[in-house]
Amino acid sequence: MMKVAVGSKNPVKIAAVKEAFETIWPEKEFFFEGFDVSSGVSDQPMSDEESIRGATTRAKKAIGENDADFGVGPEGGLQQLGDRWFDTGWIVIMGKDGTFGIGSTIRLETPSKVMHLIREGNELGKVCDMLFEQTNSKHKSGFFGLMTNDALTRKSAYRDAVIAALAPFIQPKVFES
């Protein structure tokens, strides 16, 4: 059985990792566990670079502190493109053999009303709870689900990002230098 250490205790992110790994390798047995690890970045990352640093830190801590076969680091964040802001989730996966993969969710435009509240010091999950009269929405369908009436959900978006990050593990010969 292979151990997958997820650098988050968020049940949606753990479920997304589980679904992705089991989709790619249905014949293998995995044990999935989430860990409360610090990302080393701000609570609300404001660039892709900061989000990727946070995801990398989470993956390193998850695999390093838990003797796992895989460390998975999820980190959501915002990115400005021109005069618009977008929400994107990033996934970094590290294998105990040194293999490294990175993937992202889709980008969803973040309305100016949301950005105004974030600039006041609120994290996206809290803003979603306020605007949509929710409680702990980031452990449910999240910003993606709330904005699309669950046509896209946080779980489905992160699942796809995990699969993208697994590409170097699925096709290692293509990634060889």
Biggest sheet descriptor: 6 strands, mixed
Strand content is 15-25%
Tell me the Rg in angstroms: 16 Å
Helix-strand string: EHEHEEEEHHHHHH
Separate helix tally? 8
Question: What is the domain tally?
Answer: 1
Which class best fits the helix and strand makeup? alpha/beta
Which topology does CATH recognise? Maf protein
Span from first to last CA?
30 Å
Q: At the first level of CATH, what is the class? A: Alpha Beta
Verbal overview:
The protein is an alpha/beta fold and 177 residues long. It has helices at residues 11-24, 48-64, 112-119, 124-132, 142-148, 154-165, 167-170, 172-175; strands at residues 2-6, 30-34, 70-81, 84-95, 100-104, 108-110. Strands 1, 2, 3, 4, 5 and 6 form a six-stranded mixed sheet that branches. Helix 1 crosses helix 6. It is globular, with a radius of gyration of 16 Å.
Can you summarize this structure?
It is globular, with a radius of gyration of 16 Å.
Tag the structure with descriptive keywords.
177 residues; alpha/beta; Maf protein; 6-stranded mixed beta sheet; 42% helix; globular
SSE topology:
Blueprint: E1 2-6, H1 11-24, E2 30-34, H2 48-64, E3 70-81, E4 84-95, E5 100-104, E6 108-110, H3 112-119, H4 124-132, H5 142-148, H6 154-165, H7 167-170, H8 172-175
Parallel strand pairs: 1-2, 1-3
Antiparallel strand pairs: 3-4, 4-5, 4-6
